[in-house]
Amino acid sequence: GQRWCEIARPQIHGHDFRCTAIIPCPHEPGNFRYASGSEEKMIRVLEAPQAFVDTLALAKTQSPQPFGTSQGYERALGAAVGALGLSNKAVFAEHAGQPNAGIGSGLEGGNYAEGPDLAPNAAPGAAAGPPLEEHLASNTLWPEIIKLYGHGSDLFALSAHPDGTLLASTCKAQIVPQAAIWLWDTSTWQPLGKPLEAHGLTVTQLAFSPDGQHLLSASRDRTFALWARCTNAQPGDAQYDLLGKVKAHARIIWTISWAPDGRHFATGSRDGTVKVWQLPTTGPPSKPLQTISSFGKAASVTALAFTPAPAAATATGAGSPAAQPQPATCLAVGLEDGSISLCSMRENQPLLASCGDDHTVRIFSVHL
Questions:
Q1: What family does this chain come from, according to its entry (predicted)?
Q2: Model pTM?
Q3: Fewer C-beta within 10 Å: the chain N or C terminus?
Q4: Could you read off the pLDDT of 118-176 as tens digits, one per residue?
Q5: Helix, coil or strand: residue 343
């Protein structure tokens, strides 16, 4: 079977992490970025250093590549955190292992906003096998490339557009302006247009659809909002317009997830219910969105994730052509008590099957 191992600890923070988002880099093969938010008002964006890229290549039995560049500047070898610091400072190859690693690069910190700085004895490097604890703890950090400021409260949710061009963010909120969704252009790291306003309390989760044409937001105000990409948006505009807002649950909506087909999504709430919704086939909704399936759980639903599920071929009699497997989608449901249940849906069969720790298998009829 497959074997999994930890190969890096990109960030060690002094505050609890609240949210992260992987930022795709389709035009920069071999580059990896992510954004993180915690109990502070800024977003930190980090980029994979050369040591991680090499470690990943070795893990895939490939040869490490020569030192590369990212957006035209030299890629850092790794990163280190100074004493009492929270920011990961870039460390470059020529200074690795020195008491003041990174100083004197002559590249203004290599164009990394948070480096160079004092980083005692930082010695990042590639690992040929599963890294040991000592290596993970001190030599696998990623350097910060920028901090994004604008929110007036602690960060709460992040989501990146599938093509990596946009980053959406929200913070803790008690009023409408604070609950607005900020969109950031990842090429300039500047906010786009006016923040998107629809909710009155904290937006708990954000999710772009697989094709990037829709943005979904869920909130403590028990509603979700559906946004559609503007076809006539001008450069610098917010890019998305509100399609509709639905009061979907009796308690806080903690989680949302898009199905791989981009036509269905699920919402999960503190009220212990999961609801599945369907987008109209063409054009904007002519009426409020309606749920197509709903089922309850024994505890608060805190996490949802769709994934394509392989479907087994149907057995047939002798001489009969083999039946084609029907496409299936699996929905993982995470509960506040730590348990996870799996539900399977099929496009051409109006049935939903779920199983849980209550020792039951339940089959629901789904009317699409």
A1: Belongs to the WD repeat ELP2 family.
A2: 0.81
A3: N
A4: 445 556 788 888 888 888 887 899 999 999 999 999 999 999 999 999 999 999 999 99
A5: strand
